[in-house]
Amino acid sequence: MLVLERVDAHYGKSHVLHGVSIEVRSGEVVGLLGRNGVGKTTTLKAIMGMARRTGGRITFEGRDLHGVPPHGLAGLGIAWVPEERRIFRLLTVLENLRTGLDRAGMTPERREGLLEKVYAYFPILKERRNQAGGTLSGGEQQMLAIARAMMLEPKIILLDEPTEGLMPRMVAQIQAIVHALHRDGVAILLVEQNVPLTLDAAGRVYIMEKGAVRHHASSAELRADQRVIHEYLGV
Amino acid sequence: MSTLTTSSTILKTEALTVRFGGLAALSNVSLSVPTGEIRGVIGPNGAGKSTFFNCVTGVLQPTSGRIVFNGEDIAGLPPYTISRKAIARSYQITNLLPGATVLENVRIASQSRHHSWSMLRHHRSYRDVIDRARAVLADVALADKEDELASNLSHGEQRNLEIGIALATEPKLLCLDEPTAGMSVAETHATVDLIRRIARDLTILIVEHDMEVVMGLAHTITVLNYGEVLAEGSPAEIQANPRVQEIYLKT
Amino acid sequence: MDQILVQTLHGLVNGMVLAMVASGLTLIFGIMDIVNFAHGDLLMLGAFVGASVLGVTGNYWLALLAAAVVIALLGALLQVTTLRPLIGRDPLTTILATFGVSLVIQKYALWQWGPSVRRISEPVRGDFTMFHVQYPWYRIATAILAGLILAGLWLFLKYGKYGIWIRATTQDRVMAQAMGIPVPLVYTAVFAIGSAMAAASGVLFGPFAGVTQTMGFDFTLRAFIVVVVGGMGNLGGSILASIFVSLLEAYAAIVVSPAQAVIVSFVVLVLTMLFRPTGLFVPTPK
Fold first, then answer.
1. Do A210 and B178 touch (CB under 8 A)?
2. ipTM of the complex
3. Structure confidence at residue A226 (pLDDT)
4. Neighbours of A122 (CB within 10 A)
């Protein structure tokens, strides 16, 4: 469904992605692991059209994303949950959700239904729905960022380091949400540094180093032989 | 390596703490770096490496604790004062003068150390400064590009020029902030060689994510986690330390 | 005592008109970082259009509406043709562009309507009396109308679907795009809204002093001062600052001539920049 073919990208002069090839099929959860600075976030940004793609191709459901304006990706079914969460701090929780909810073709019933569904996933957001986004805790902001993406009823969610900086209890919650989204049939490209979480949630994992994909295996294989993980993510 | 007695500790921090509101970015960090060492600082995201760096180079004021450089308390001093005290730093975002040549960039940095107020002596001291600048360029393998505009260099060459600019201020302590970020494998190897070359006369503090670079270069490594020192030791010791593996692999 | 009362009313009324002008300016700046030097000239053009429509139909309210709509469309056209291509470039280019537009608009108005002053007559005649003071009803009505329009704008931004789009885009353009919000369209709409507010201000202000090609300049200048004092991009701040500065100027005019009273605005501007550069009515950032 989402295919990156030998993608190269530059930030100014810095050649940050070298021939990255990644595929996420419909309904799959795919992990993207690697240390800091290897290009995981840049890969997501390349998909979102935010990094200068200087080589290769990115297609979604067969359609080349080159030339699709940045605000057109949501309509195609691609949702993004960035590393910094980037919730709209001065908007309330509900208003944050409405940025995704107020789409063409959304009847009042569908809106209610979607909102209720997301509140069921994240009861704390219902409680805080009239509070400004900036007053939420880190974990709550992460949940809001994911809930906001769900408002787009996406086919795929690009999830960038959702557990970074969160306490273990919240990490477990995020893990549960990823499972629930998978059950719902949403595909996820999960960028993470948390290895156990990724191996548990994803069926397949790509490992990156220095701007390139160095290894690609199923989670089962990586769980069985941890040496590869140690080499690319350990010390 | 010089004989290491406690008086040849070039940098020491004692219970260094930095608080942002309720969050402790650094908590009680105490370490000491002997003169001439290459000290690596590693740790997962948010461990406090940048905060630590910013304190040592004067960009950030610590909430409490001491930073002692060459026997002098430097905590809270502004960056330009610290620079005069011979600590230099390279930056993650390129800080070059793009409209100037490679030689000019280094020469300007060098002049900060050797400026002469006398107009009469100007011509002579100019020659010395250029020679010093050329020597630095040789160290960072950019001697053949001295007349090239800084903006025309490749990314790897620009990062090396940055190290050259820091070197030109004749520091005793050089702080390198992710010097190989965004570099290809080949460029990384070249930079590692460069750092080894210049390390003979310097003490180097290096923050890096690339494990190969850090393990290959550093004499001692300090591991930070959630703002605290988790472990300290030789590369081999750190690699064998299960707690360090844990925080990286989160097992 | 009477003088103080009159000046207070002057300050409030002028403040409300200025608030309408400044809101448009601060919205535009807040969302797309454009310093719109042509803002006052859009006001002037709106006043001329209003005067012409009034001359033809005799209906003030129609003139007000027509001016707002026509200038909104013009604003949208301007944004699409001259400002959209400059997105992402050096901010200096947009300043120069809006300055150029300002000159063009002024000369066009001169060509179209000639050099004589136009009149817009008040829709509401008569004075009202308060404590021995007679004050024109029309001016009070202007202040109330401006207040209603600003309240309407506030409600739209706070509760409307598109209001949320505008506020989200102002806070984080990239994330707004990722949520499917068509940011280029939002930019054009905001510029149109700002232009419409400026035009309406021009028609409202018309009866106060007549309509001339150069009437825009004073407004642009004061609006910029007020936007800085209120906090750039801060709608509530610019409204409060408009009233504050206008009141100060009005009181100053008791002591010195009105032409000199404008110095008060500059003093406030300088003090703000020295001590609270993010704006007087903005909470100090941590």
1. no
2. 0.93
3. 86
4. 19
Backbone angles phi, psi at B175, to 5 degrees: -105, 120
Is C284 inside a domain boundary? no
Residues of A with Cβ-Cβ distance to C176 under 8 angstroms? 71, 99
Residue among B178, B215, B248 minimizing CB distance to A233:
B248
| Full residue range of the structural domain in which residue A68 is found | 2-233
Q: Can you tell me which residue has the tokens 């970082």?
A: C33
Residue found under tokens 């809106």: A111
Phi, psi of B61, rounded to the nearest 5 degrees = -90, 125
Cα–Cα separations (whole angstroms), residue B165 to B95, B169, B213, C87 = 9, 7, 21, 34
As a whole number of angstroms, the distance between CA A185 and CA A179 comes to: 10
Residue from the list C164, C177, C183 with its beta carbon closest to the beta carbon of A102: C164
- Measured in angstroms, the CA of C200 and the nearest CA of chain A are apart by 29
| Interval C228-271: pLDDT, tens | 998 877 888 899 999 999 999 998 888 888 778 888 889 989 99
- Residue-wise pLDDT for A87-114, tens only, equals 999 999 999 999 999 888 889 999 999 9
pLDDT, residue C277, reads 84
Task: Report the C-alpha gap between A97 and A148 in whole angstroms.
Answer: 5
Chain B residue closest in CA terms to A212: B184
Closest CA–CA distance from residue A136 to any residue of chain B (Å): 15
Per the CB < 8 Å rule, is A98 touching C164?
yes
A196 touches chain B (CB under 8 A): yes
Domains of chain B and CATH, by start: 1-86+171-251 (3.40.50.300), 96-169 (no CATH)
Task: Determine how many CB atoms are found less than 10 A away from the CB of residue B65.
Answer: 18
Closest residue, chain A, to C174 (C-alpha): A70
Range of the domain at C171: 2-275
Of B155, B178, B250, Cβ closest to residue A37: B178
Task: Find chain C residues with C-beta within 8 A of A71's C-beta.
Answer: 176-178, 180-183
Please tell me the distance from the alpha carbon of residue C234 to that of residue C167, in angstroms, as a whole number: 11
What pTM value is reported for the model? 0.87
Please tell me the total count of domains within chain C. 1
